[in-house]
Amino acid sequence: MSTLIITALQIEGFKKIVACNIDPENGKPVIITGDNAAGKSSVLDGIMFALTGKGAEKPLNDEFQKGKVTVMLGGEERTLEVKRTFTNDSKALVVRDAEGKQLSSPQEVINGLVGALAFDPEKFLRMKDKERSDALRIAAGLDFDALDDRRERAFNERTTINRMLKESEGEKKALGMPITNPGESKSTVDLMSNLRRHQEAINQHQEARNDVDRYKHELDEVEAQLKHLKLVQKSAKQTMDTARGKMLILTKPAVEAEERIPGLQAEIEGVDEHASRVSAYRTDNQKRLDLSARITKLSKAQFELNDELQKVDAEKEKAIKDASLPDGVTFGEEGETLYWGRPFSDLNTAKQWEAATQLAALQDPELGVVFIREAALMNKKARAFIIGWAKDRHIQLWMEKFQEEPSDEGIHIVEGEIASINGKGVA
After folding, report:
1. Most CB contacts within 10 A, which of 150, 305, 401, 412?
2. What number does CATH give the domain 5-147+321-425?
3. Contact 276, 132 (CB under 8 A)
């Protein structure tokens, strides 16, 4: 499809313009000059208004009851006449083809040709970094909304995971050295049973001792009456011998019991303390196990989220690589616009215009028209580059330039009308 350019422009009663007819020279930029408030901006605004219906809150000149802007678009394969008429209360658009046939849905026809950025690369230069990056993505057909949402969700979730992981690791570190396992808890019941058994042995021994003492006493009495109580003496002696034998039998267990009792009492006193150490050990060990499991789970989640972020960034990088961006134009890590690796804001004026103009043409391959407002701010090098660039690509430049007096270059506007063309006055 061939590129369309403006082949003729007629403006009547639009903003500061009284009447203005321009027939651009093929292959040359259209330079509109004039003093402040002379109407030069109204020429470019008039083209925008005709094609988009926007760009003027109050389009009608105060001296007119009705105005019109007619833009002729032509190319090798297509010709269109775009006419927008307007009053203070209404506006209408008519689009005709080369045969004069009025086309239906005229604004949709024009919208298929026109993009806001293509008309004004200077606007691209005035944008802030984020606005410029957004405009660049739109121009290149890049929609990162879904990827940005994925990245934001993953980034926020990873931030939470990192915080939880740091807290868990700090909590585990704060536990210090693990508590030594004190072994299995001892049974108080068993110890008490053992104690009772030894105590019973002592009691039995004591009873035997008491028996010995009693029978000895009886023996003493019997011996005092020995002469009369021989039979009683013999019986008491036998009884005493029996008791002594029993006592001897019980002496060893009693001695062992006496030796064991203090230890058993100490063990009984230490049962509660041991049980407390066992409980502390189990609590500490379980807490360490729980923290280790939590850290493992969080570390896995952290790895998965890092992988998700890398995938999102890779998809973005691939989309940018596959997009139809001008040579040297790309995005930085923070989303800023770069031109040959340098932030756009760091470029000199010539390089900024070079990138912005290429981007402007990129957005509208069918409508080869680029507006440059404030052309007076461009240096010679930037201007020469842009004019040469436009000529090579068959792009038509419309340049607005502040200039109080006419010169041998450009269409000079005075009080809303053309006063001279290339230094020659217009009658």
Report:
1. 412
2. 3.40.50.300
3. no
